[in-house]
Amino acid sequence: MGDPSAETQRTLYPYVTGSSVVALKYKDGILMAADTGGSYGSTLRYKSIERLKPIGKHSLLGASGEISDFQEILRYLDELILYDNMWDDGNSLGPKEVHNYLTRIMYNRRNKFNPLWNSLILGGVKKGQKYLGMVSMIGVNFEDNHVATGLGNHLARPILRDEWHENLTFEEGVQLLEKCMRVLLYRDRSAVNKIQISKITEEGATVFPPFSLKTYWEFSAFKNPTVGAEGSW
Amino acid sequence: MSSIGTGYDLSVTTFSPDGRVFQIEYAAKAVDNSGTVIGIKCKDGIVLGVEKLIASKMMLPGSNRRIHSVHRHSGMAVAGLAADGRQIVARTKSEATNYDSVYGEPIPVKELAERVASYVHLCTLYWWLRFSEIDSHYHFKLYFFVFFTSITYCWQFHRPFGCGVILGGYDRDGPQLYMVEPSGVSYRYFGAAIGKGRQAAKTEIEKLKLTDMTCRQGVIEVAKIIYGVHDEAKDKDFELEMSWVCDESNRQHQKVPDELLEEAKAAAKAALEEMDAD
């Protein structure tokens, strides 16, 4: 850390970032949602970044934070899955194992003061067991029935705590996720109205094509926003 | 032994007066003593098959894999000293993943074969290179050391790899089959065999019409050939191990699916009985 040339080789701040990812367990597996935006500071620069990726046969990874670090993580996981496949012994890495691997990577990078600037959500199903976990850029990890990254923790999880229950159907799960993503769209300034949902079940992973949420701007509070606070905007 | 070197065969860095390197020929003999390994190129892919001679009845079937995947699209079957083979497979996997991470596409099979051959050859020239040095050696940086060290250490610590490999893969140019010998030469084949029963196996392969055959049919044929060349008198038991990379397997290298393997074994045993009945 005292070596001056080492300063330029550590991650100090993120550049292109993705916003929140929200995920929940439902009857058949995991549902995950994220928007497809990549912000360059306060500019919404990239509007079509896919932040939900299937990993191997049993897992789905969603990431928020620095996009280039996410791509690097995908390369690590690609190599992990490749070596796992090359054993060709009928076994394959499940979501718990991949989550553990990611936790190790994130925590060890943080210890070197050179973090991968992401919050990751890893969900999957293996042999009927559903698994949903989260890892942050400092290596904090946990497992739960519903998780979110970034602002999603503050806006989406309260909704999920009230309305999530075991054995949601696919339609109910999607509706719940859309509700969370709509709140994020209204309130998170780095959100983009192009949402992607993906699911993973015992049969495999599906990443659905992006779509837009219907928004409603006719609330009376939006009509005359500066009434009672002249001079503000 | 047909050709004994008598003095010119103690080191792989010595030529004989008639221009042969005996250590490499002896390495090839190690390969010839191993169980038969066959590879064929069918119209939609490659099939690899190994006659795995079982040393002991205590061994679990399916252990001691002789066919390894080296990347998604290619695999390698090893004949000869198994420990040497592990080394070659590990190096090949590393070459394949390195190419993929640098160039962003799966390594072309031709390129992979060249790298394997180059590596095998390198290890017949220099014994003291550790593996990190081998990468820089591709640029001949360490050439100077050869003069000083090989004279004093020329008969210690080095031998060529005692194994030959058959490498099969499927890239944009279609399915391809290569064989690399302990000397470091590699050629491209449509049918190759190494090991004990290679002469008989090659004759059988030449009879097949490979350009019309799919891999599904190829698997049955390879099983028949291996059961056919297996010498019941000399070696009691063997296990058949087969893999393929073809359109049906989505161009991924994998073990032949269990039901197809059983079907192939049954067909091979039936063909043997037919031959015995004649």
Automatic annotation (TrEMBL), chain A:
Gene3D superfamilies: Glutamine Phosphoribosylpyrophosphate, subunit 1, domain 1 (3.60.20.10)
Keyword annotations from UniProtKB, A to Z: Cytoplasm, Nucleus, Proteasome
Regions crossing the membrane: none
Pfam families the UniProt entry points to: Proteasome
Cellular compartments per GO CC: cytoplasm; nucleus; proteasome core complex, beta-subunit complex
InterPro entries: Ntn_hydrolases_N, Proteasome_alpha, Proteasome_beta4, Proteasome_bsu_CS, Proteasome_sua/b, Proteasome_suB-type
PROSITE patterns: PROTEASOME_BETA_1 (PS00854), PROTEASOME_BETA_2 (PS51476)
Keyword Ubl conjugation: no
Assembly description: Component of the 20S core complex of the 26S proteasome. The 26S proteasome is composed of a core protease (CP), known as the 20S proteasome, capped at one or both ends by the 19S regulatory particle (RP/PA700). The 20S proteasome core is composed of 28 subunits that are arranged in four stacked rings, resulting in a barrel-shaped structure. The two end rings are each formed by seven alpha subunits, and the two central rings are each formed by seven beta subunits. The catalytic chamber with the active sites is on the inside of the barrel.
Name of the protein: Proteasome subunit beta
Species per Swiss-Prot/TrEMBL record: Arachis hypogaea
Lineage of producing organism: Eukaryota, Viridiplantae, Streptophyta, Embryophyta, Tracheophyta
